[in-house]
Amino acid sequence: MISKKMADALNLQMNREFFNARLYLSMAAFFEALNMPGAAKWMEAQADEETGHAMRLYNHLRDRGARILLGGLEPPPMQWDSPLAAFEAAYEHECEVSRQFDEHLTFAQAEKDHATAVFLQWFINEQVEEEATVGGIVHRIKLIGDHKGGLFMLDRMLGERKAD
Ligand code: FEO
Q1: What's this model's pTM, rounded to 2 decimal places?
Q2: Which residue in 1, 50, 57, 157 could disulfide with 20, CB within 3.0 to 4.6 Å?
């Protein structure tokens, strides 16, 4: 049985992950408006991944006999100054999500909730990948600068992302 405090933390994180899905879908819509279909597709795939993260938490709460509580969601931001600004915001956001999971794991360990600690390890690994991937895209956009052809090529490359 999971403690009430641990269940509250995981419910909070589940709702955050549902917000993350909407954040990335909002970024997808932003890239559609910029006529960058590749980046939009990349963001859509990211949004799907975030829903998957939320459902992992949902399933863990269910399997541990906790009450699952879906809360209201804040509207996500809708506008960024540039493609670079949107990906920089995504990178900063992923760093914040990493900190959130670090906190949850520290709490699970303090509670000696080994099942939750093992469960959270997947997210710790996933966040390393998320930060590296988005950070890599930020780096590429910075290298491209104002070169329109470079941005076009990057958009094509981003559009090759497969759904996980
Ligand atoms: Fe589920 Fe990208 O944090």
Answers
A1: 0.95
A2: 50
C-alpha to C-alpha distance for 48 and 92, rounded to whole angstroms: 19
Delineate the domains of the chain, giving CATH numbers in brackets. 4-71+78-158 (1.20.1260.10)
Contact 14, 57 (CB under 8 A): yes
Give 66-115 as a DSSP string. Answer: PPP-----PPPP---SSHHHHHHHHHHHHHHHHHHHHHHHHHHHHTT-HH
Query: What is the residue whose two structure tokens read 């910075």?
Result: 142
Please tell me the distance between residue 16's alpha carbon and the centre of ligand 1 in angstroms. Answer: 9
- pLDDT band, residue 64 (cuts 50/70/90): very high
